[in-house]
Amino acid sequence: MSAATNNTDELARFLGDFRLTAREAKVLIALVQLGSATVSQLSRFVGIERANIYRVLEALGIRGLAIQATGPDRTWNSPGRDEIVEILMAEEDARHRAMRTEAEYARQILATLAPEAPQAALPYVQLLSRASEVGRLYDRLLDEAEAEILVCNKAPYGGGPMKIRPAVMSALMRGVAARALYESYELDAAEAEALRQTRLVYHEVGVEGRVVDRLPIRLAVFDRRRALLAMNEPGLPDRFPTNLFVDHPDFAESVALSFEQLWSSARRYRPPTRSAPVLVGVGRQRPNASSGTSARSNRRRQPR
Question: Are residues 205 and 133 part of one domain?
Answer without folding.
Answer: yes
